[in-house]
Every structure is written in C-alpha cells, then in structure tokens.
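Here is one such tokenized protein:
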Amino acid sequence: MNLKLVVFDVDGCMTHGDITYDNNANELKTFNVKDGLAIVTLHKIGIKTAIITGRKSIIVENRAKELKIDFLFQGVKNKLQKLNTILQNEGFSYENVAYIGDDINDAPILKKVGYSFAPSDATQYAKKASKIVLTNKGGDGAVREMIDMLMEKSCLKERFEKIWE
C-alpha cells in the first residue's frame, strides 16, 4: 500500500448529513472528535488530506483549518475533476488515494481510487461503488474507522500508533 492522500466528503461522512439552521439562519454541523484526531495523526505521518464537497459552508472551512486539511474544495459539481487536479499537481495516482463518500455524486471517485469506503448509512449507489462498507455511520466514527483500517493495511500502523506516545 502506497497511501499518499485521504479524501473526505463532508455531509454524511464527516457529519451525520443533517443540515440544521438556528433562528438566525446560521447553519449548524456536528463533527466527531475521534475522526478529527485520526486526521491530525495522518498529517503527522506524512499523509496529505483533502475535502471535496458539493456544498459550501463556513463551518466546513473552519473545521478544515482546525484540522490543517491540505486541500479544501467546496461547492463542487464534479468531484472527480477536482481530485484529478490534486493528483496532477501532486504527482499522485488513483492507487495512492483513499476516499470516503456516501452518495451518488461520490460514486465516480469511489470506483477509481485505490481504497474506497462508504459509511454504513450511505446510499446504495455509494455502497455498490465502494470497496469497503464501514460498520459506522457518517458522523458516528466512519472516518475514524476508515483511517484505522488504512493503518492496519499499511506499513504506517506502527508510526500512526507511536505519534502520541
């Protein structure tokens, strides 16, 4: 396994997929802290990360900054095209990429990358396109489960576990 990039969809993967507004029309999202720690640990062992999402949200921008996500693309209509931009600029190939997605607009990437994952509550389109369907739901540790699986399959597991010693 030559993992170089882990890419996340947001709504339904990093979050439950709910979009909540308060009385002032402020959008609210909830992120899983265990997912976040795993993402930070990926950076510490030299793996790059990206968010490619169809919606635009300042909340996602803030979360990406907090986690030091390397590439953030919001409001994306063609996710595969954005991934291709990253791959071309970084010199990576599809085999170097892991992706988590939960719906039909994620399927083109899920079919192409080396390691593809769908949360347990993903649509059938995403599940059929993925190599692995996770046991956790989006927003309930699916991202952490994916990253733990990736570390189990790679020579990076030991480095991943020792970062916090």
The first strand starts at residue 5 and ends at 8. The domain at 5-159 is CATH 3.40.50.1000 (Rossmann fold).
